[in-house]
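Structural prep section.
Before we set up the soaks we want a predicted structure of the protein with uridine-5'-diphosphate in place, mainly to decide which crystallisation condition to try first. Input record follows.
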Amino acid sequence: MKILITGGAGFIGSHLAEHLLRSGHKVCAIDDLSTGRLKNIQHLLNQPDFQMVVETILNETVMDRLVSENQVIFHLAAAVGVELIVKSPVETIERNVLGTDVVLRLASRYMRKVLIASTSEIYGKSELVPFKENDDRVLGPTTKSRWSYSCSKAIDEFLALAYFKEKNLQTIILRLFNTVGPRQTGRYGMVIPRFVRQALAGEPLTVYGDGMQIRCFTYVSDVVDAAVKLLDEPKAVGQVFNIGNDQGISIAELAEKIIQKTGTKSKIVYIPYDQAYEEGFEDMRIRQPDLSKIFHYVGYKPKVQLEQILDHVIRHFRENEI
Ligand code: UDP
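Run finished without errors. Recording the tokens verbatim:
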């Protein structure tokens, strides 16, 4: 099959491209390299079944051609990382809403199946864990820019579901929880690559808030596995799925684990949220997916657990990023 990946030079996009090529598909990646990196897909450039287009998905002329040439679209191009979102709210909102509008409009013109990457930020600060796909969303006020990310992705979800309902377009929503693995950079705030880089450089590990907030980390190969399983399941069309790992850890405990695994002399420093992000920043205390729906539809269960995830990421940093 011919498959288009928007955000194909990003962290998750590059792993997905690799997997699809290995399975015998032809892959075209489009990426404007705003947060994606050519380095992520360098090793794929000499493969005849891989094509890389460096362009924004807002360029409708280019996108029209790419959507018409491919049968399926994985739409991963989006503003990522809480730090980036807080610093550049205009870019976040426009990139997410306008980008998805272009993708869905063109997909509808050529009737192409679209799998859209969404986010666990959708659930907001609800503490009713584990989160189920149909749970209510609990969000803070519009004066706190963090929530713009949740809302912009919610518009993407509404739009994708509306295209399915009204125009019969085959859309599937992938609600991704904290995903980690090689090639993820800590530049936009993601905690594991940041802590690992800090530990290996002998710098203090920066725990925000009291460190008691809990996250569940998913290895990128599990996310790719789930996405591909959903692509192949006709009953998944028009549906929303949590994709993640349901084993949680507090951020303070995570920092200790990384210190112990790397053998660094680094210490932990606690930084108030106001200082780390912006005044009045609100975090989620706990975020955990309910995975029963995706298990029911395609038998998905995460295979890689935190100990192994950290080993892989530490090895990757030691070999590539220092
Ligand atoms: N975090 C932290 N130190 C850092 C970066 C992040 O303590 O250097 C915290 C962050 O405040 C959040 C958790 O780690 O509570 C996960 O952050 P990340 O940005 O990876 O993902 P989020 O869950 O915020 O989407």
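Observations: The radius of gyration is 19 Å.
Flagged for discussion at group meeting.
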